[in-house]
Write a structure and sequence with these properties.
mainly alpha, 82% helix, cell membrane, VTT_dom, Alkaline phosphatase
Amino acid sequence: MTGPLSAILGFGLFGVFCLAFTEKILPIPPSHVLLLFLGMTAAPDSSMLAILLAVTTLASFAGCLVWYGVGRRIGFDRADRLIERVGRYVFLRPATYHKLGQAYRRNHVRVSLLAQFIPTVRNYLPIAAGALCLPALPFAMATLLGATIWNAGFLLTGYILRGSGQDSFTVGLRIIVIVVALETAFMLALRYGPAWRRRIRLALG
């Protein structure tokens, strides 16, 4: 994987933009892997790290706007059918998409922000935002903020690992495992949280 990534990075910041934008459209490699790699290999100093953050965030934001536009274009019913057909191929369960889509109706700004911290969901939930015709400006602001925080966290981690003297691969793998575990916990809370809350209320009288 590092061979093709290194080749694309040979195009400089344009290559970085293309990688981050493409990851938003099709998450291969996943964003946390890509950002850790960039932080460890493409940021020789803090100034370049800041530039990488700006470029990758702009690319991520542009990818979100593309999917938002797709959602607006095809409408809610066809967006649902699209996720039903292709969701399993990009590790996005249709049930998860539907639950978050319902949450969008209640608080679209908060969900737009939180969605940026969930791998795979962060790529495709903008389709639901567009399909539901949610206001573009609040969606864009929340998405931009979430993408900035997400990208900064992994870029900075990769940058720190580069000069730590530790085995970067091992530490990076541990971080990825933690991210996946947190994602799984979020999905379980989303799926079973309402039932648990009802049981707690019943138990408390």
